[in-house]
Write a structure and sequence with these properties.
Strand order of the largest sheet: 3-2-1-4-7-6-8-5
Mean pLDDT: 91
Oligomer: single chain
Strand content: 15-25%
Low-confidence stretches: none
Radius of gyration: 17 Å
Length: about 240
């Protein structure tokens, strides 16, 4: 069982799967982490995902293709998956199907930094936001188990990275690793093509809805979530 599990929700982009696997192979990530794609079974391209030929296990490492029972927005889907697997791994990570690791040994570096933190969050340089936002991150699973979710704010898609950054900074347990490149191949930076998925989650209505939910979390629940994570960190320090 890998200490780090990276969860990649995907919909409508089966062509992304082999790109991610190749990037993992090229950076040696399978030596330290497992990769799970979460695919909606009602995705019109679901069978295309299943039909993609992957390299043999000895060449690609642990890759799972897990079917979600129905479509959910990114954050509810990710929280559900993280909750199901938080008891099986030391750390869990989120990556989009458009995040491609570029730095050899990045998975081991994530684990080393998380073990040093004891309880915490790490993120790398996505070549768009850099230190400003963790568009991809890894966190120790005790945070997920304690909060009951990976992303603390009740957003659907947007502002999830803002909430992760807020939580980590307020609890003093987040590290940015500028030399670890996890490239975000997003069309906003000219590294991808706008498709129905990008258009759906970048609508003005989506921004308004998720911004309101994010601000509601900051006002009503952030302080409690930060206190819970700080308590975890005190416990780790005491045991250490």
């Amino acid at each position: 069982m890998a200490d780090l599990l990276v969860i990649v929700p995907s919909r409508g982009r089966p062509e992304s799967l082999p790109k991610v696997v190749k990037a993992w192979q090229e950076t040696g990530a399978f030596a330290d982490a497992a990769l799970t794609f979460v695919i909606d079974t009602d995705d019109p391209r679901y069978e295309e995902y299943r039909a993609i030929p992957l390299p043999p296990p000895e060449e690609r490492g642990p890759v799972r293709l897990v079917g979600a029972d129905q479509w959910r927005p990114l954050v509810p889907k990710l929280n559900l998956a993280a909750g199901a697997w938080a008891g099986e791994h030391f750390a869990l990570a989120f990556a989009g199907d458009d995040h491609l690791p570029r730095t050899p040994g990045w998975a081991k570096r994530y684990l080393d930094e998380l073990r040093d933190l004891g309880t915490g969050i790490v993120y790398g340089n996505d070549r768009i936001q850099g230190e400003r936002l963790p568009t991809q991150w890894a966190m120790t699973s005790d945070i997920v188990r304690t909060l009951g979710r990976m992303i603390p704010a009740d957003v659907e898609h947007l502002y999830c990275d803002n909430a992760i950054l807020d939580l980590g900074r307020a609890a003093e347990c987040i590290r940015y690793l500028p030399d670890v490149v996890i490239e975000h191949c997003h069309p906003v930076a000219g590294r991808g093509v706008w498709d129905a998925g990008y258009e759906r989650v970048n609508r003005r209505e989506q921004y308004a809805r998720d911004h309101a939910a994010y601000q509601q979390w900051r006002a009503d629940r952030m302080a409690d979530d930060v206190a819970a994570v700080k308590a975890l960190r005190k416990g780790v320090t005491a045991r250490g």
